[in-house]
Amino acid sequence: MKRIYFVAIPIVITIIAVLYMTTPHESKSNELTPQMLVQNGSPMLGDPNAKVTIVEFGDYQCTYCHLFHQNTKDALLQQYVDTGKVNFVFRDYPLNGPDSVFAADAAYCAGDQGKYWQYHDELYKNWGGEKTGWVNQKSLDTFATTVGLDLSTFDKCLSDNKYEQKVLDNQKFGNTIGIDGTPSFVVFNSKDITKIVGAQPLSVFQQVIDKFQTS
């Protein structure tokens, strides 16, 4: 996935989201707001008042999501999030099926113990491919132990499927705004919004963020 895709639209403009709620061809108009983009996602990294926000739509089994995590994410956070220029939110887009939903559910269960991001990172550190079976109860428990979770509380959360609907709702929302692959990033400030698709290098994010910092 080497091509770079940018879709820029004003944040205040009404977008047309095809929802297929009552008939196959009915569309519904919604105003896309910053709150809509970040709600229901992960705990926010960075200053909530930062001028620029990045929302990643990702899948824990996705090859290119793993590559972004491995090659770009740390540098992006260090240069922009840790310095207060950008905040960052992850939203689930589990296109690889039930195991991806299970992994996302586990990350939110870890979040109940204040360790969402530690668990999120542990999933990507131990990535084992797409639809290979590496996401299972045993592996998720191992990751939970590694990041220091109370295992009985974590397992109860998982067995209750506590966050399954939240994960599926994130994917549904992604569909309504045109997300169709992972990783996809929605980068925005108070005036503009840009979509970046794929495991792009840091330079691609720099170009967008630096432009938004001055707009």
CATH topology: Glutaredoxin
Question: What CATH architecture label applies?
Answer: 3-Layer(aba) Sandwich
The H-level CATH homologous superfamily, spelled out, is: Glutaredoxin
Low-confidence stretches: 1-29
CATH C-level: Alpha Beta
In N-to-C order, the SSE pattern is EEEHEHEHHHHHEEH
- Major beta-sheet overview: 5 strands, mixed
Can you tell me about this structure?
The structure is a single chain. With 215 residues, the chain is of the alpha+beta class. The protein has a single domain, classed as Glutaredoxin. It is 43% helix and 17% strand. The chain contains eight helices and seven strands. It has helices at residues 34-38, 63-81, 98-111, 116-125, 137-146, 151-159, 164-176, 202-214; strands spanning 8-10, 14-17, 28-31, 52-58, 86-92, 184-188, 192-197. Strands 1-7-6-4-5 form a five-stranded mixed beta sheet. A two-stranded antiparallel sheet has the order 2-3. β6 (184-188) and β7 form a beta hairpin. The radius of gyration is 17 Å and the shape is globular. Residues 1-29 have low confidence and may be disordered.
Would you kindly provide a brief summary of this structure?
The protein has helices at 34-38, 63-81, 98-111, 116-125, 137-146, 151-159, 164-176, 202-214; strands at 8-10, 14-17, 28-31, 52-58, 86-92, 184-188, 192-197. By secondary structure, it is an alpha+beta fold.
Highlighted features:
17% strand; two-stranded antiparallel ribbon; signal; alpha+beta; Glutaredoxin; 43% helix; redox-active center; transmembrane helix; 215 residues; 8 helices; globular; single chain; Thioredoxin_domain
